[in-house]
Amino acid sequence: QVQLVESGGGSVQAGGSLRLSCVASGDIYYTNYMAWFRQAPGKEREAVASIYTVSGSTDYSDSVKGRFTISRDNAKDTVYLQMNSLKPDDTAMYYCAGGGSGFPPPLKFEYKYWGQGTQVTVSS
Question: What is the DSSP letter of 43?
Answer without folding.
Answer: S
